[in-house]
Amino acid sequence: MEILIRSTPAEVAVEAADIFAHYANAGATLGLATGSTPVAMYKELITRHERGEVSFARSRAFLLDEYIGLERTHEQSYYSTIRREFTSHVGFDDDLVKSPAGDSDDPATAAATYDKAIRDAGGVDIQLLGIGANGHVGFNEPSSSLQSRTRIKTLHPQTVQDNARFFDNEDEVPRHVLTQGLGTISEARHLLLLATGSNKASAVHAMVEGPLSAHCPASILQWHQRATVILDEAAASQLEDREYYVFADKHRPHRPLFS
């Protein structure tokens, strides 16, 4: 893994936007994630789009996951969330932003169909990721198979509690989701994971310096041919070998990788 440590969350967002902009301008297939961590990067990309510095006109996108039981138009569906926070502001064609069909009557078939759609599109060029406090990526909670495909998952009670802030109360949070599996995620050509805040420090330590293990799903990045992890100082605070990362060249260009 390439580990980049920056002083603040704002600097993490700028670094990540630099990488993502190269891919977008090259017409890449983008893997998008929701959650609080990538919002600052999305805002940076919106600003650059308004200045004419980045275009998404030739890109398509696949989302990591979706709640089961919510219509796409529900304000808390991840399709609506990514549109509200990002894609509608940068000229992204709505028809080219794909998400798992969480409102399907047959979620298992919907999961397999989505996994196949990613492969049929030629795969994802760069996949954006966050990390949960327990090391999850997407909704791949601890104990998830490292070779898992897009599938139905039951949310951990802590994840339900964490997501309750987006709903009127915890009872309204769906208990099941469709999520890309660790095997599906790993097929992206470039993985870009962002983490900020001291509450992510333990998970970051397990991901970077712990063993490759289903106990920390994010540790799958250790196995990937091209994985970039961008951290603020708080998220990097528990890394034992942080002196090897903190001086990473801030000015090295990141060019799109296509197979």
The end-to-end span amounts to: 19 Å
- String of helices and strands: EHEHEEHEHEEHEHEHE
**Morphology call:** globular
Give the amount of beta strand, in percent: 15-25%
Mean pLDDT: 92
Radius of gyration: 17 Å
Low-pLDDT residue intervals, each spanning 5 or more residues: none
For the biggest sheet, the summary is: 7 strands, parallel
Percentage of residues assigned to helices: 25-40%
Number of helices: 7
Structural class given helices, strands, pairing? Answer: alpha/beta
By DSSP, the count of extended strands is 10
Strand order of the largest sheet: 1-10-9-6-2-3-5
Describe what this molecule looks like in 3D.
InterPro entries: Glc/Gal-6P_isomerase, Glucosamine6P_isomerase, Glucosamine6P_isomerase_CS, NagB/RpiA_transferase-like. Pfam families: Glucosamine_iso. This is Glucosamine-6-phosphate deaminase. Belongs to the glucosamine/galactosamine-6-phosphate isomerase family. NagB subfamily. The active site is at residues 65, 134, 136, 141. The chain is an alpha/beta fold. Helices cover 28% and strands 16% of the residues. It contains seven helices and ten strands. It has helices spanning 9-25, 39-50, 78-85, 107-120, 157-163, 182-186, 201-209, and strands spanning 2-6, 29-32, 60-63, 65-67, 97-98, 126-129, 151-154, 176-179, 190-195, 227-232. The strands form two sheets. It has a seven-stranded parallel sheet, covered by helices on one side. A three-stranded antiparallel sheet has the order 4-8-7, covered by helices on one side. Helix 2 (39-50) links the parallel strand 2 (29-32) and strand 3 (60-63). Helix 1 (9-25) crosses helix 2. The longest helix is centred in the N-terminal third of the chain and has 17 residues, at 9-25. The protein is globular. 45% of the residues are buried. The model has no long low-confidence stretch (mean pLDDT 92).
